[in-house]
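User: Run a structure prediction on this.
Assistant: Running it now.
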Amino acid sequence: MTAKLPAPTVLTGRHVRLEPLAEAHVPDLFAASGGDEEVWRWLPYDVPQSEQEMALHIGARLAEAAGGGCVPFAVIDLADGRAVGVTCYLDYSAQDELVEIGGTWYARRVWRSAVNTEAKLLLLTHAFDELGMGRVSWKTDHRNERSQNAIRRLGAVYEGTLRRHRRRPDGSWRDSVYFSMLDDEWSAARARLTERLAAGPATV
């Protein structure tokens, strides 16, 4: 059976809600991470220094979505109901049953909290169990060890590194580190992620 393409939807857990990204999220997102060099260090975007610059960044992502290039979500922290980050489905194919999770960033205050773990659990559950995907992938800057470690903790498998793959905003070149998870690996990964969430903040 052919997989279904991702589309805007709402995915809700105990700690976070993923909802379609919109211009209305701009004030929360700028308050959460605007001007924070560390949040944006390894992302292929300039650091938003004003709410207007954040609006341009979100507008570009929404334009990409309108063209069918991604399905972006605002990540809502249910503790206060505010948007604390963005994550997306990218590079998807129903015929090939694959999708990438990427374009992800979070306010520093929710790093190593349940937010990223549950957001990924929601995205993976939707991709494998509801869309019928057979492969989910991630890629990240080879210098971004924090991101690589977080992806490995999901249960993803390192696949290789593309050298001189993308130019950073400062003009330097990055190598891209690739990971994936296949449908027959998902059951064990889901059990581990669910256990980590249940065990509390020290384990996520």
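The first helix runs from residue 26 to 33.
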